[in-house]
Predict the structure.
Amino acid sequence: MKSPKWSEGRAVIVGDAAYCATPIAGKGTDLAMSGAYILAGEISTANSYQEAFEAYENKIRPYVEKC
């Protein structure tokens, strides 16, 4: 089941918790590292955690869907 949203309040999920790819995809580690990296970048530059979480999801979700 796909999660429609990867954050709620001050909590956000990354990696397999958010977007576990099928084992056939071979993208689990790649997705987890990319997601954590993008989230960290967004948190460091955003004015609020809400803005950071939204930017994180907007950036990584298209890549996850493609994988």
